[in-house]
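Write out C-alpha cells for Asparagine--tRNA ligase.
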Amino acid sequence: MKTTISNVKNHVGEQVTIGCWLANKRSSGKIAFLQLRDGTGFIQGVVEKSKVDEEIFKKAKQLTQESSLYVTGVVRVDERSPFGYELGVENIEIIHEASDYPITPKEHGTEFLMDNRHLWLRSKRQHAIMKVRNELIRATYEFFNDQGFVKVDPPILTGSAPEGTTELFHTKYFDEDAYLSQSGQLYMEAAAMALGKVFSFGPTFRAEKSKTRRHLIEFWMIEPEMAFYQFEDNLQLQEQYVSHIVQSVLKNCSLELKTLERDISKLEQVVPPFPKITYDDAIALLHKKGFNDIAWGDDFGSPHETAIAESFDKPVFITHYPTSLKPFYMQPDPNRPEVVLCADLIAPEGYGEIIGGSERIHDYHLLKKRLEEHHLDEAAYKWYLELRQYGSVPHSGFGLGLERTVAWICGIEHVRETIPFPRLLNRLYP
C-alpha cells in the first residue's frame, strides 16, 4: 500500500511503500538507519541485516544523500522519536541516485546556503518553517471566511504609490508609467465600499535599500478593510486574528515548533486582550529606559520597538502616532488632530512591527487637503477621492506582514528563511 510519512500513523503494523528521498544515514555493522523525507514529514527507516536480503542491506549501506527511493516496510511505534513512528525496512527501490549533493550535514555559511536555496528548502529546519508558514496561510483564510469577509485581489501593477513614497519599482505600462504594488490598501477600501468586509493576500514590493534582518524586497501582506469599522473595532479584530493564527500553529504544528526548538510558553500567552500604549507614553517609556536621543515627532527604529516590547509579555499596540509620521489617508484624532487614529502592533522578543493599521479618512475635503499637503497628484487619486463622494462611511483596515509574523512565531533570526525564495538587496538568484 502506498502512503505518505504524515499518514503512517494510520498504518501501524502494516506494510507500506513510501516514495521518498534519503536525507541522511548512519550505520553500524549489522543495522542501517535511514533518515527519509517525502515532503509531508521525516521518518527513520531501520534496515536490519538479519531481516533483509544481502542485496538490500548492501544497497542501504551505499545509498547517497538525496537519492530518490521507493521504500517498503512495516510501520512501528517508536516512542523515542519526536515523530512517534519508524519504518522497519524490507525493500528499497532506487529511482535516481544522487551524487555529490552540495549541502552536507556539516556547517555551511549563509551565503552558500542562500546560493543553494532550491536545495536548502529540503532540510528539516526549512521544512518546519515552510509548514508553519503554510499553517498561517490556512488559518488566515479560515479566520476571515468565518468572520464573513470576502477575498478580493487588488492589482499588482498600479499607476500611483499608495504610501506616497519614492521606494517603488518602476516599469513601463505600454506608453505610461507603472509601479509594482507596495500595498493593495487603496483598492481594498474601494472593495469594502462594495462588499463590506474584505481582505487581500498577495505579494507586495518595496524598493528599499535595507539590509536588516526584518526586511525583504518582495513579501506577502494580508490586508483587510472594513466598512463601518472605527478605530477600536479595528484593534479588536487585529488581536482576534493574531491570536487565532498563533493558536492554530500551536495546535497544528507542534512537531515543527519542536524541530525549531521554539519556546512555546511565550506563544501560549498570545490571547486577547493585548496591551495598548500611546505614542506619547511610548516616548516616556523609552526615556525611562535611557533612550534620551528620541523626541516627540521622531519615528521608532528597531531598538526602540524592541525596548517597548520588552515591557510586555504579549504583542503590544502603539497608538496615536503624530500625523506627520504617517501616510496621508489616516484619520486624525477628532480631539487632537496632531495625532492619527492608528496603531502599530509590535511582536514580543524583538521581532518588531508585524501590523500597521488605522481608521481611514472618510471626509472628502479633509482627504483632498491631505493629498495637497503631501504633494500628491490629485488626478491620480481621483477614483480614491470619489469613494468619499458617493456614500462615504467610517472605515478601517490594517496590513500584516506574513514573513515577519512567521519569523516571530518560529523564533528565527532573519526573515530570509521565512519565504521559499527570498528577494534581498543583493539577491535575485535562485
